[in-house]
Write a structure and sequence with these properties.
This protein has 181 residues and is an alpha/beta fold. It has eight helices and six strands, in the order αβαααββααβαβαβ. The strands form two sheets. Strands 2-3-1-4 form a four-stranded mixed β-sheet, with helices on both faces. The N and C termini lie close together (10 Å).
């Protein structure tokens, strides 16, 4: 999600990223930000959106952290407040990216797919099975989610080394703190 946001932002789009994994949020920590307040607080009516958005790297994109882990993530994400929040973000940003939990273990990602303009499946090379990929596609189809693409990560390069032998700086990742994974 972070790399996708950086790509859109560098191309000139105004981007918001929502940390939509309310059960095991990791994106904020990965980006070096605090996640103690965020979307769960906004959806519960305890905070205003503008008070919890965090500009990332001098405003490259805005991050909406997960906030407190709620007792009812699926209910919050499927609420009318979530739809209103997404409408507000769509009106103010060119691209809104929702970093969701995995699609198969919990319903949260399927719920979010019903509200999103499209879904991108992220599969891990050598770990995600064809059956899991097929079930994920079926799950999206069942909720009328629009699959717009698939990203395969952790693909080994020649000799199993991937892009690591080139170094992040060569491709410009170093400018944004080395977020390449």
């Amino acid at each position: 999600s972070a790399n996708l946001a950086i790509t859109f932002a560098v191309d000139g789009a105004r981007v918001a990223v929502i940390e939509g994994d309310l059960r095991m949020p990791r994106l904020s920590a990965y980006l070096g930000n605090d996640s103690t307040v965020g979307i769960s607080d906004v959806l519960a009516g305890e905070r205003k959106l503008e008070d919890v958005l965090i500009p990332f790297r001098d405003g490259l994109f805005d991050l909406l952290p997960a906030g407190k882990v709620p007792p009812n993530p699926s209910e919050l994400l499927g609420s009318g407040q979530m739809r209103t929040l997404l409408d507000t973000l769509r009106a103010n940003y060119d691209v809104v990216i929702i970093d969701s939990p995995p699609l198969l273990p919990v319903t949260d990602a399927a719920i979010l797919a019903t509200m999103a303009d499209g879904a991108v499946l992220v599969v891990r090379h050598g770990r995600t099975t064809r059956e899991q990929l097929s079930r994920s596609r079926e799950t999206l189809a069942q909720v009328s989610g629009h699959l717009i693409g698939t990203i395969i990560n952790f693909v080994p390069g020649p000799g199993g080394r991937g892009y690591g032998r080139y170094g992040y700086g060569r491709y410009g990742y170093g400018r944004y703190g080395g977020y390449g994974g």
